[in-house]
Amino acid sequence: MFTGITPVVLAGAAVASTLGGGALALRFRDRLHYLLGFTAGVLLGVVAFDLLPEIFSLARENAFDASAAMVALVVGFLLFHGLEKFVLVHPAQENHYSHHHHPHVGLASAAVLAAHSCMDGVAIGIGWQVSPMVGLTVALAVIAHDFSDGLNTVSLMLRHRNSTRRAIAMLVVDALAPLLGVLLTQAFTIPPFQLMVYLGFFAGFLLYIGVSDILPEAHSRAGPGIAARLIALTCCGAAFVWLVVRQSA
């Protein structure tokens, strides 16, 4: 049944899915506010329906205190907030760019998404070590999710006034990240407690990007009467992740 299927092959499918999502964002950049609305919902969905349940599952299975991961979530949220406010933009540049539209912010946000994609690859590799069926199920969810990751990466880069060339470069980095994650699982495994804390920290990053960055920008770009459509798209983005997670459960 699994003849010819390996974790690397599955990661290759995730690479193609990410590139497809990025191509869609480049094609419809004139309607970026719609893509941003959907993107915000996807990030909220990943935190609520994927990362947090995984954190509590790890805590329950290993008798850990989940409060450590919740502290890491708050630290991740506030750390990215501090980086955006005080580090990523030099004061001398404020006359030319607001901190919400500086290219460095887009690069940092896209790098976070690439790190998440790398962990998607780690999830495929670890799942395959449990059994080929588990690895395949996880991979199907990752492939569906990485389409949105590609879309999110390009949207973030363009939203922060990065060039098309830079957006494509970060798209390639994000696309290759799952492959790197799979290869990493061939070298070592992450202890359960450290993994739980990492997931909490990472959830804080994604929560900040979705709630404090992408969603306000989507509404600021929209004209009168568009708010209801954007809210609907945000709900669709969250629902999409919920469906993907349910199918992989």
Structure report:
This protein has 249 residues and is mostly helical. The protein has one domain (26-248). The chain is 81% helix and 0% strand. The longest helix is centred in the first third of the chain and has 31 residues, at 32-62. The protein is globular and about 50 Å long. Mean pLDDT is 80; it is low at 88-99.
Secondary structure layout:
Elements: H1 7-27, H2 32-62, H3 67-87, H4 103-130, H5 132-159, H6 164-184, H7 192-221, H8 227-248
Helix pairs in contact: 1-5, 1-6, 2-5, 2-7, 2-8, 3-7, 4-5, 4-6, 4-7, 5-6, 5-8
Which labels suit this protein?
single chain; mainly alpha; 0% strand; 249 residues; globular
Summarize this, please?
By secondary structure, the chain is mostly helical. The protein has helices at about 5-25, 30-60, 65-85, 105-130, 130-160, 165-185, 190-220, 225-249. It starts with 6 loop residues before the first helix and ends with a helix.
Number of domains: 1
Strand content: under 5%
Q: Write down the oligomeric state.
A: single chain
Largest sheet: none
**Strand segment count:** 0
Give the radius of gyration. Answer: 18 Å
Secondary-structure element order, as H and E? Answer: HHHHHHHH
Our count of helices gives 8
Classification by helices and strands: mainly alpha
Average residue pLDDT? 80
What is the end-to-end distance? 20 Å
Shape: globular
Share in helix: over 70%
Point out poorly predicted stretches: 88-99
